[in-house]
Amino acid sequence: MTIRAINAGLSVSPQILPADIAAIAAAGFRSVICNRPDGEGADQPAFAEIETVARAAGLQAAYQPVISGQVKDSDAEAFGALFATLPKPVFAYCRSGTRSATLWSLSEAAHGRPLPEILATTRAAGYDMAAVARRIANGGRTPTEQADATHEVVIIGGGAAGIALASSLKARKPDLDIALIDPADIHYYQPGWTMVGAGVFDPQTTAKTMASLIPAGVRWIKAAVAAFEPERSAVILDGCRVVKYRALAVAPGIKLNWAGIEGLAGTLGRNGVTSNYRYDLAPYTWECVQGLKAGRAVFTQPPMPIKCAGAPQKALYLSADHWLRSRRLNDIAVEFYNAGAVLFGVKDYVPALMSYIERYHAQLHFQHTLTKVDGPARRAWFRRTDAEGATTMVETDFDMLHVVPPQVAPDFIRVSPLADAAGWVDVDQATLRHRTLPGIYGLGDACNAPNAKTAAAARKQAPVVAHNLLKDLGAIQGADAVYDGYGSCPLTVERGRIVLAEFGYGGKRLPSFPAWLIDDTKPSHLAWLLKERMLPPIYWKAMLRGKEWMAKPQMAG
Fold it and tell me: In this protein, which residues make up the domain named FAD/NAD(P)-binding (predicted)?
């Protein structure tokens, strides 16, 4: 935690954890403001978690979420009004502190504080508000005619897709001028969190610093995106800075909408409520699994699309396998509530999965969507949809609840000209070019190609985008590269065995190995070894380094 004093009454900070509240209170702060919407990051505690601890420490806590990079004048006015009512000094935080500093700057400017004084104050705290001053001077508009930076290629997002693309581009054209925009300090190997939740991986092995992974020669712009102006080939960043480009690749990942389930945020990490979809909660899953001796274990899956559609049931299989091996399964009722109508979307893999559902005596509840959780009471409510479309509410108790939150495209994508009607980056599913905006490409979880949202998909998409982008810039010749929808979901059905589901568009099986080596429709110990021992180093040392092992793009025609 880094506390940066704006003045005697206000300090700002990057994201905090519940464990930081004690130090904040000890430093003399009397109030906390959260300016970050829930669900922006994979390691972000919800405000309700912060609020609970803050109140226990005697602090007032206020939630004023502002979409990353989209601070409006009305937001600044609301911040000023909120600040005026809270006991001082006030501690405000967001992802990096920039939003909170921007809110203060705009609020103070509206009340007549001179711009040079605002700039000097924020600069002393470590925040450069020069671009905010430019916005103030232009009557609230960020002018895009003047760029703070210009690059041949700009990549939005430093996740699996974004870094893999940067490396693939550098491997093809080492002198290419690339900037990668992402505000996060840490990059996560998210496929490993299922294994953390089963006690197989240590959580620390799934995290590396972003700085250690961005390819040499790629400029890292550590900021959040506010808006796109494709007609001017411009991206507007948090703090009102402007970056221009010749080609833009958009790979910001997906947003976990924890607030989409009533009561969930306030009980995560407590009362037996957990999720392998967050870095800090996956260890709690394993704690819950080990601690449950008897009772009801409930596992949920929200409506599609979600990243790694097999992960909700992987948590079930690995938990039930532990209970079976420890001779507790007869005392534990295992239930799977799935918003969908089938266990898995590719029918060839269902028979193997059903054999494990039967082994673990798991009860399947299809077309049940989790809507509400009461952690202290250990109750959960689901909306059930019947064949005619009528809905009823179903209530159940639980001793352990593994939740997968509903998921949507990031806010700044959904409101942008890049998005389709559903909010996803609108791309051609074969070439991954934007359907209507030239020079723009989409890959990873935020694009609307109808493939499974997995790291394996990003591994195949990155070379396709790299080839087509360079072709469009005139750097290489030849046919278009095409993406066949490949995705992989290693379904961990028990400790030591995996059904290695690999498939493309339309549910077509696309196995990477001959059946005599790994039969992808049956559980395999060799597939487990691939997941446990080979895929992490392949991810860190090959995919993110531009080594396209088994990922060479197909060419059209």
Answer: 152-268
pLDDT tens for each residue of 421-437: 999 999 999 999 999 99
Global pTM reads 0.86
Please spell the DSSP secondary structure of 418-485, one letter per residue. TB-TTSSB-B-TTT-BBSSSTTEEE-STTB--SS-BSHHHHHHHHHHHHHHHHHHTTSS-SSPEE---
DSSP state of 532: I
Count CA atoms closer than 13 A to 202's CA, side-chain side: 3
Residues 6+ apart with CB under 8 A from 332: 292, 294, 295, 296, 297, 320, 323
**Gyration radius (Cα) of the chain, Å:** 24
Residue 551: pLDDT band with limits 50, 70, 90:
confident
Token readout for 33 is: 């403001």
Q: 238-279: per-residue pLDDT in tens?
A: 777 899 999 999 999 999 999 899 999 889 999 999 999 999
- The answer to whether the CB of 276 falls within 8 A of the CB of 426 is no
Residue 497: what residue type? R
Distant-in-sequence, close-in-space partners of 23: CB < 8 Å, separation ≥ 6: 1
- Catalytic machinery residues: 308, 489
CA atoms of 483 and 554, how far apart (whole Å): 7
Please state whether beta strands 90-93 and 60-63 pair in parallel, antiparallel, or not at all (unpaired): unpaired
